[in-house]
Every structure is written in C-alpha cells, then in structure tokens.
Amino acid sequence: MTRNLHRLFVRSSAIALSIVGFSTTAVAHFQVLYTPEMAPSRANSTRFTMVFTHPVHGGPHMDMGQPEQFYVVSQRGSDSEPKRTDLMKHIKPIDWLSNTKADAGEAQTPIKAFNASLPRSVTRSLGDHIFVLQPAPYYESSEDKYIQQFTRTMVNVGGVPGNWAEPMDLPAEIQPLNKPYANWTGGVFRGRVLADGKPVPNAEMEIEFINHALDQDGRRFGEAGKVKLPQDAYGTQTIYADAQGEFAIGLPRAGWWGICALAIGATTEHEGKALSQDAVLWVQVKDMK
Amino acid sequence: MRAPVFRQPSFLFAALLLTGAFLFTGTFTATTAFAHSPICNCYNDEENDNKVICEGGFSDGGSAEGVGVKVLNDRDRVLINGAMNADSIFTFTKPDDDFHIIYDAGPSHQVIIYVDDIE
Fold first, then answer.
1. pTM of this structure
2. What is the ipTM, given to two decimal places?
3. Closest to A123 in 3D by CA, of A77, A162, A155, A94
4. Judging by beta carbons within 10 Å of its beta carbon (0-12, 13-18, 19+), is residue A89 exposed, middle or buried?
5. Best A42, A76, A83 residue to mutate vs chain B (most B CBs within 10 Å)
6. Domain total in chain A
7. Using CB atoms, which residue from A77, A120, A121 is nearest to B61?
8. How many domains does chain B have?
9. Beta carbons of B30 and B83 less than 8 angstroms apart
10. Which structural domain, as residue segments, surrounds residue A45?
C-alpha cells in the first residue's frame, strides 16, 4: 500500500505556499544528490547538492540533519579494485529556498540542505565514481515515523566503465542494470532492488522527474515546471518490482529521474519510532541531437 | 583542444586479426583491444611537476595492461617507448621539447594526446 500519510506535506508554511493548484497532490519524498553532469569527458571539480524534497513539484522541502555518511567508490575498468574515499569533510550546510516567490513583506523560511564542493582529484581517474549519501533519518511528523533514503549518484569520467553494476551491499540499494549516467531520451532503464545485497521481491517503487531546474548557485528549484502534469497520478509514477526484485521504466524526457524503492531496509525502528529505509538512485537522460 | 583520434577497423580486417589471434595466442591483448574503443587520459602528476600520468582503458572496461605508449617530439621521433602497467597506468618524465603521446592499442586503434590536452 502506498504511503498515504507519507505524501502529506510536512511544513505548514509549505502547505500554505503549495495549496493552490495541488492541495491533494500525492508527492513522494526524494533525497536529491545532484551534480550537473554525470558523464563528463574529463575530470573536473564537482559540486554536489543534497536536498530532501519533492522533485516533480520543486518542493516543499524538508530539513536535513547532518548526513551520517558521504563517500565515493571509484573503479577504472572491470578488473581493477574499487577504491573508497570518505567525503564527509567536504559537506557544508546551506539554506535551501522555496521555489515559490513569497508575497510582499512575507519572509521565507529556508530549509537545511547541504553542498559538497569536491576537488578534481576526487574524480581525477577515468572510470566510475559512485557517490553514496547516507542521510540522517528524517522525522516525518505527519506519519510519526522516520525516513532514511540511501542515495546513489554515479559519475563516469571519460567513458571507461567500472563498478556501476556491482552491488554495494547497502541496507537499501537499487542495483542498476543499465548505466545510470548514459541514457537516451525514450530509452528504458532497468534495475534490481536490493537490501543488504539480496533482491527484494515486489518492492513498491516511486519514480519522479526533477521537473524544476535545480539552481545550485541560487539554492532553489526553478519556479516554472518543465512539464505540466495532466493529473496528480502523473507526478509520482508508482511501480512494483517483480518477484526477482527487478524493474524497468521508460525515460520519456531528458533530465534527471529519481527512482526510489520504499521501506526495504532491515532496520525498521529508530528512536522508538518506525523507520522506513529507502533506496534512491538517480539517472541522467539526454536527447539524441 | 584537439580530440583524441581513434578509428574502427573494417570487418575484414577484424576477421583477419581474429584469425591471427587464434593462431598466435600471444596477441590476446591486442584482440581484446580491437573489439572495443581504446580510451586514454593523461594529466600532470600533482605530486611531481616533472611527471605525466597516463591512464588507459577500453570502452568495455577491459584492462590496458601491456598496451604500448610512445612519447614523441614534433618530428615524430620516439623519445620514450613503454607500456601500460598492471594498473593500466603509464608514468613518464616530461621531455624538454614539445611532445605528444600515442596510446597504441594496435593498427587503427591509436589515441593521440597532445600537450594541450594534458590537464
């Protein structure tokens, strides 16, 4: 069963801003781990933005706690050994702003998000660089439960593949069966839902498009959506994995797509309340030009 | 910035190479290389200004161990002749003259990296 309560907006101010137009909208929480380019030709310094939000609507956003882990596992070529690099020292808190303009005289309350500016040395090598964010559990008061989304964004430098398809045995994980960083518009993306490295049969999943351009410098999403949703059900696509934990989705538009498998982790309690350990994987899609 | 150069062999040429590889097992690495695009990237060693590090690979993730690397001057005279190590890396000391690098994965499968391309 879907998370009915999970989809309620969590901040009264956000509700006030959001109520016009989609007061009954079903939206999914997504831990964003964004950098503009997943497949650079050459190594560059990179900046990641971490914001907990509802990407198809560009908000409302939720305050993040200090992340528990942020690291990258890099591998050049299929035969080499993966190398793990801790990146916690690069994480800095930022204020993330609403994408809706406040009325005159009305103050906006930013929410807490994080940035990580990484030197070129982090992605210096050719190959795959799998960035993993383990956020602090977020307390969803409307459900009286915690949500923790183990989030992965994969960057490939130069076209030499590495460990993109290898399971990492995370508590909650989506194992890609296509390269997440190299997808054409109109293509199909396949994956497998794993918990502690084992397939999760029939996992409930949600898919959302980052419909409002993410402005790293402005620390907000764009006000106008790229796609007009014909009806609420189009905002969050809900699917189920099959008996082997595998799934396939279409990629109808260029941009960033988030794939989330809900409540698949083995740990189900945090500080005396229910905990949903989810897996999030981000996929970048480009037009054939 | 000049783009790396690599070209695909013809089907007939590939078939001849595969036949050759079948006869001479010593060409296994070259056979692997011909089946996929060679990729090479060179950058300055941040710990030693006089050194350049080149990483090799293939589009299928195959190892570049043993793939030849040449450093040549502007008159195409070979200044350094070596090969990728077990980690698919080749490191060399910068020559005094202008130079370019050829990552040589076999005929028609060469990547040329010019000085301007070295980060």
1. 0.85
2. 0.79
3. A155
4. exposed
5. A76
6. 1
7. A77
8. 1
9. no
10. 5-286
